[in-house]
Amino acid sequence: MMRRLGPGKLVIASHNRGKIPEIAELLGPHGIEAVSAIDLDLPEPEEIGTTFVDNAMLKARAAADLSGLPAIADDSGICVDALSGRPGIYSARWAERTIDLPPDAAPGEAKVERDFRFAMQRVHDEVLAQGPEASRDAHFICALAVCWPEDGQCEVFEGRVDGLLVWPPRGDRGFGYDPMFQPIGYDQTFGEMEPGAKHAMSHRADAFRKLVAALIDTPSLP
Ligand code: IMP
Question: From the CA of 104, how far away is ligand 1's center (Å)?
């Protein structure tokens, strides 16, 4: 039988200031007290996996081992049909750009920052380069992994939300690619929606529902 996640402390194995409050908000109603990898000053492991599931497990495992507490990690991203699923697991990396340094900077010194206007522009440009008929279909994927410290157990759940890419981006809520993603059946982008509305139907909410059903909800009696 799958182990249950009881009330108590759980580490959110993320350094992403957009995701931490989203995950904490989902956990709160279940009596789970979230502390983040930032609060505990845990290092960020390198995401060397080749799938969302691999990367989520790798982050949750590292945080559980280092903190001695159960840990939850999310690996997520946007997959664009016209780009054969890219940027996918590289969604955060598409936003990285090297900043110009002052002329007196030490040789080899480089500063990298994440800029999602730049990443959204890249997605848009690459889709346009596929021609006017290119599909605007896209989806977000979220893999949520929970790992326990004692015995190496890990459970993973995957969620998805389908939508269309819009241009120009709309809205200044949310984070990442939210302003260019309009979920199917809605006329607002994730960047325009009330946070509560997004959190109720996002890829993260979908994965989270599966996690709650498997690890938190009281199982029904036979
Ligand atoms: P990760 O931290 O490596 O999982 O990076 C995931 C990246 O995917 C984020 O930095 C965002 O760019 C993108 N992403 C994941 N979930 C969302 C979302 O809900 N809205 C917008 N962008 C997202």
Answer: 35
Please tell me whether the peptide bond between 87 and the residue prior to it is cis, using omega within 30 degrees of 0.
yes
Strands 32-36 and 96-99: unpaired
User: Is there an atom of ligand 1 within 6 Å of 189 CB?
Assistant: no
Mean pLDDT of the 206-221 span: 82
The torsion angles phi and psi of 169, rounded to 5 degrees, stand at -60, 150
Chain-wide mean pLDDT for the chain? Answer: 91
pTM here?
A: 0.89
> Which SS3 state, helix, strand or coil, does residue 80 take?
strand
Name the more confident of 111 and 143: 143
- Nearest-CA residue for ligand 1 atom 9 is 92
Q: Does the annotation mark 75 as catalytic? A: yes
